[in-house]
Amino acid sequence: MTQPTGAADADAAEPAAAALRPEPVRPRRRTRVHRAWWVAAVTFVTIIGAAAFRSLPGILVDPLHDDFGWSRGTIGAAVSVNLALYGLTAPFAAALMDRFGIRRVVATALVVIALGSGLTVWMESAWQLILCWGLLVGLGSGSMALAFAATVTNRWFTERRGLVTGVLTAAAASGQLIFLPLLSWIVETYDWRPAAVTVALAALAVVPFVWLLLHDHPADVGQKPYGAQEFVPKPAPVPGAARRALAVLRSAVRSGPFWLLAGTFAICGASTNGLIQTHFVPAAHDHGMPLTAAASLLAVIGVFDVVGTIASGWFTDRFEPRRLLAVYYALRGVSLLFLPMLLAPSVHPPMIFFIVFYGLDWVATVPPTLALCREHYGDDSAIVFGWVLASHQVGAALVAFLGGAARDTFGSYDVVWYASGALCAAAALMALVIRRRPAPTPGLS
Fold it and tell me: Which of 57, 212, 347, 361 is the 20 to 30 A CA-CA neighbour of 282?
C-alpha cells in the first residue's frame, strides 16, 4: 500500500527535528566520601584519646620522685609494666575484636584507661602506682594499640593501606602533641594530680564517638571495603579469642621473618617509648633545661612524627619495606650517638635539628613492618602484628627500667644513649635479612 505523501514527509522530518532538540541535562551524581574514611577518622581520634596518658610518664618521673621519695628505678618499673602490657595485650585484643567487635572492645578499653588514670590521684604507695599506671592503663591502652589500627585497616581498606596505616600510627604522636604541653603546664603550675584527672576525662570523652560512629565491618553499612571490586560479607564471630591468638603465635614462631620482625621492633620500642618518651625530659632536666621546655621539645617530636609516619606509609606503598626499615633504623642509631653532646640548659639549633630528625623517624617503622606482616601472614597479619608489637613494648619496658636504673647508678644517661644507638645499627642489619615472600605463580594453587 502506498503511504500518503504527508505522512512520509513527517516521518522524514522527525529525525532532523530530534537532532536539533537539546539533549536533556542529566543530574550529576554526587560523589560521596566512602564510609571507610569516616571510620579511619574516628579511629584516629580514638587513638589520640588513648595517647593522652601515654604522654604523661616522661613528665611525672621527677614530680613523683620529689612527692613520694620513690627512686627513678621504682617509677621506671611501673612504666615498664605499662609498656609491657601495652604490647602483650595487643594480640589478644585483636582476637577479641574478631569475637565481640571493634566498638565494644575499644569503648571498654577507654573506660579502663580513665579508671586507672583517675585512681592514681589517691595512691600513696609504689604498688598502687604499678596497679593503676602499670596494670589498668597498660591493659586499656594495649587494647587500642597498633593492632587496633591494623584491624581497622585490614577490614575497611584494600587500597591505600600503607597510607592509612601511617595516618593511624601518627595519631599517637598527635595525642602527644596535643596533651604533652598542656599536661606539663598543669604539672608545673599546679600538681601532677590534676594532670591525671585531665587524662581520665579525655579518655571518657572519646567513648560516645566510638559507640556511635565506629562500625565493625563494611558489611554493617552495606558497603564494600575501600578499593574492593566485590562486596565482602561480614565473617562470623571467631570464638576462643585467647586460643586463636596463641595458635597464630605458635604458627608464626616457626618462621624466620617473625623473629626478625619481632627483634627489630623490640629495638624500635627500646629507642622510642622506652628511651626518649620516658627518659628524655628527665635527662634534659639533669642538664638544667626547664621541665616545660623539655616537654615542648618532646611534643615537637610528635609534630614531625605525624609527617614522617604518613610519608612512610606513602613510601611503603611504593618501595621495598625491608630497605625502608634498614634506612630508618640506621639513621636513628646515628642520631642517638650525637644526643649526649646536644643536651644543654637551653634549646639551641643543633638540638632542634635532632628533635626534627628523630621525630620524622619516630614510628616511621610501623607501615613497612605491618606491610611485611601482611605479606608473610595474610589474614592472620593483624594478630601477628600484635605479637610483633608485644616485642616492641617488651623492648620499651626493659629500657624504661634499665634507663632509670642506669641514671641512679651512673648519675647520667650517656651510657643508655650509646647502647641504644648500637642496637639500632643491629636492627638495620636484621631488616635487610628478612626474606621476600615469593609471588604466587599464576595458574598454580
Answer: 361
